[in-house]
């Protein structure tokens, strides 16, 4: 048996711009002289005996929307505009709410900053614009007043109100554990601008109707702004920016259009970080008044471990002044969301949250839906090891490949880019410099491959254990003074330099080509020939010394990882003599004339060997024809 078609209402109203479903029901029920509950039933909305479920504000099914449109003489777009459904395109927390389930009724829609449980309001907006219709039935209860990020009215230059000026209760439709679109929905005759909260006093007797407060919410004296004019201007400017981001197509500029779907997630995540690390973020607010507002909100959670990380991770402040201060600090920290300055601003907050509770810090960012940029900026690092692998930089940001990364950062690059970091470190020892150069190469590989430094070391032909030693050595130097961020900024500059090169070296191919290359004793004797002071080395010296040095020059790596040294270790023979001798000739700061002369010849030989590797030609050639005569002149560097 088919259900009878609902009869259209004899009278209706045109929805006002931005009006919510609750506001429309209040205005239309007042005009018709019926209760909001009765009107909701006539319009096909879901109703319970004591409430009109608030989850209908998030969206209506096509059947219910069609019936409401037919009964109230509205078009389907007008009905849809009464709900928050349209805002899911620009405010993603709404889109992530589950609908149509009983479990969603109650507090669930109010976690993760999706909606407010109570409607905020602007008294001047409720008074209307002076037109005959709005003089009679009041202005619009705006649907955006249910969003936690809406805390001010930019039209009337004031913060929104969140409680009744008479009964001091939130304008909530809460009934037991559920929320209703309208409070006390069985009472008629109240103007849409009157408070529908139960009147202060003893609770009504069982089965008795509650008496509404009835106070006028649109009275001019109700708009109390607790902020000084400079602070009010700051939060109004922020609200204006947020309003633009809520309205589809209203933002202009590449920066805003590049990631509009992640801005609000970043803003909310940063607000949570501020709260959990408070008072670390206080410096990002322009006045003590705003600091006190955030302090009032955050302090109960900071000093109560039982509540920390539970409600604070899931719900927004109830008061508009607190909300405005917290979001202003959050927006200031985010800035334009450029990675390097963002990381500098937010890293102290992240570190403090993890210091207080590592588990809360991890959970906070795990399901935050924040942008990759914010996740990178907040990723904790331990001795250069980034814990959240999914938040590393995308390889699409750079044009070089892992095979084109030198295993040991070239000395010229180190001298050029690492000066800002060296100012904060003790006088540079050879071992520390070597570990910094290794770490720079690991970081470059991390930017491309997204793996741990141990995995990146293997990609570069370096043992995993070497990466562990580097992290331990640098951890002692960089972690306590907080220099990891500066280190990463320096390596980012190196990455852009490498990415901008037109011709890059394939070091992986060179390592493969020289894996079986060996320097013969005859070649070693030819390299030492004619250099005063090296007669003994020419006669009885170890050719693997020259082999290790030439290999490291060709592959831009450390002689410690050369096949010669590796082979010496594998045969259980002590490699210390070999590494000590190789270090003498590999050291660019060597001052002994005979060693300098031999180093020049080794560089010249390595230059020709590297060219042969790149060209794929025979690596065996006559040493005497390939090296320049012994002189003090500078030879071509290895490329």
Question: Can you put this structure into words, describing what you see?
Answer:
The chain is mainly α. The chain has four domains: 21-222, no CATH class; 229-378, no CATH class; 395-504, no CATH class; 511-626. The chain has 29 helices and six strands. The longest helix is centred in the C-terminal third of the chain and has 23 residues, at 593-615. It starts with 20 loop residues before the first helix and ends in a 13-residue tail after the last helix.
Essential attributes:
639 residues, single chain, 6 strands, two-stranded antiparallel sheet, mainly alpha, two-stranded antiparallel ribbon, 2% strand
Q: What does the secondary structure layout of this molecule look like, with pairings?
A:
Layout: H1 21-32, H2 36-42, H3 62-71, H4 76-80, H5 92-95, H6 123-127, H7 132-137, E1 152-153, E2 158-159, E3 174-175, E4 178-179, H8 229-246, H9 254-258, H10 260-277, H11 288-302, H12 320-334, H13 339-356, H14 358-366, H15 372-378, E5 381-382, E6 385-386, H16 411-417, H17 419-422, H18 430-449, H19 453-459, H20 464-478, H21 484-500, H22 507-513, H23 521-528, H24 535-540, H25 543-555, H26 563-570, H27 576-586, H28 593-615, H29 623-626
Antiparallel strand pairs: 1-2, 3-4, 5-6
Helix pairs in contact: 1-2, 8-12, 10-12, 10-13, 11-12, 13-14, 13-15, 18-19, 18-20, 19-20, 25-27, 25-28
């Amino acid at each position: 048996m088919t259900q009878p078609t609902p009869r259209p209402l004899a009278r209706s109203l045109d929805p006002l711009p931005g009006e919510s479903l609750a506001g429309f029901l209040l205005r239309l029920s007042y005009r018709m002289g019926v209760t909001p509950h009765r009107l909701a039933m006539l319009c096909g909305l879901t109703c319970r005996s004591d409430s009109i479920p608030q989850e209908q504000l998030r969206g209506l099914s096509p059947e219910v929307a069609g019936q409401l449109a037919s009964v109230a003489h509205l078009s389907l777009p007008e009905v849809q505009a009464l709900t928050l459904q349209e805002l899911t395109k620009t405010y993603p927390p709404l889109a992530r709410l589950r609908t149509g389930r009983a479990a969603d009724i109650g507090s669930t829609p109010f976690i993760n900053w999706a909606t407010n449980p109570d409607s905020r309001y602007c008294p001047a907006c409720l008074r209307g614009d002076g037109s005959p219709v709005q003089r009679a039935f009041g202005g619009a209860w705006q649907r955006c007043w249910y969003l936690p990020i809406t805390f001010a009215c930019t039209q009337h230059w004031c913060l929104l109100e969140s409680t009744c000026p008479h009964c001091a209760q939130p304008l909530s439709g809460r009934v037991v554990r559920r929320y209703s679109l309208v409070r006390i929905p069985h009472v008629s005759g109240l103007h849409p601008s009157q408070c529908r909260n139960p009147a202060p006093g003893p609770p009504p007797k069982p089965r008795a109707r509650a008496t509404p407060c009835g106070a006028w919410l649109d009275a001019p004296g109700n708009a109390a702004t607790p902020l000084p004019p400079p602070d009010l201007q700051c939060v109004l400017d922020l609200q204006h920016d947020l309003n633009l981001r809520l309205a589809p197509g209203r933002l202009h500029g590449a920066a805003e259009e590049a990631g509009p779907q992640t801005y609000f997630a970043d803003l909310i995540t940063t607000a949570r970080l501020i709260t959990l690390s408070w008072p670390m973020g206080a410096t990002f607010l322009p006045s003590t008044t705003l600091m006190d507002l955030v302090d009032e909100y955050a302090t109960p959670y900071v000093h109560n471990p039982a509540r920390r990380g539970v409600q604070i991770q899931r719900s927004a402040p109830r008061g508009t002044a607190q909300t405005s201060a917290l979001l202003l600090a959050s927006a200031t920290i985010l800035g334009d969301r450029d990675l390097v300055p963002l990381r500098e601003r937010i890293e102290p907050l992240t570190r403090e949250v993890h210091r207080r509770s590592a588990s809360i810090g991890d959970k906070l960012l795990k399901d935050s839906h924040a942008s990759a940029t914010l996740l990178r900026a907040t990723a904790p690092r331990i001795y250069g090891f980034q814990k959240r692998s999914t938040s590393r930089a995308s390889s699409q940001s750079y044009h070089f490949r892992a095979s084109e990364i030198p295993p040991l950062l070239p000395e010229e690059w180190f001298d050029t880019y690492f000066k800002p970091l060296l100012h904060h470190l003790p006088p540079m020892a050879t071992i520390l410099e070597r570990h910094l150069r290794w770490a720079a190469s690991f970081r470059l590989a991390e930017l491309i491959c997204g793996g741990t430094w141990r995995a990146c070391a293997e990609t570069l032909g370096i043992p995993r254990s070497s990466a562990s030693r580097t992290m331990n050595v640098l951890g002692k130097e960089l972690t306590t003074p907080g220099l990891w961020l500066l280190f990463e900024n320096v390596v980012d500059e190196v990455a852009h330099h490498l990415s901008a090169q037109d011709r890059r070296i394939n070091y992986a191919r060179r390592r493969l080509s020289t894996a079986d290359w060996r320097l013969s004793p005859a070649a070693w004797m030819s390299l030492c020939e004619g250099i005063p002071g090296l007669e003994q080395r020419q006669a009885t010296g170890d050719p693997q010394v020259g082999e290790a040095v030439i290999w490291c020059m060709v592959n831009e790596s450390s002689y410690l990882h050369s096949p010669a040294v590796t082979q010496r270790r594998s045969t259980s023979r002590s490699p210390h003599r070999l590494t000590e001798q190789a270090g003498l000739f590999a050291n660019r700061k060597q001052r002994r004339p005979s060693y300098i002369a031999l180093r020049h010849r080794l560089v010249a030989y390595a230059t020709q060997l590297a060219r042969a590797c790149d060209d794929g030609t025979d690596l065996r050639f006559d040493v005497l024809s390939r090296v320049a005569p012994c002189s003090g002149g500078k030879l071509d560097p290895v490329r």
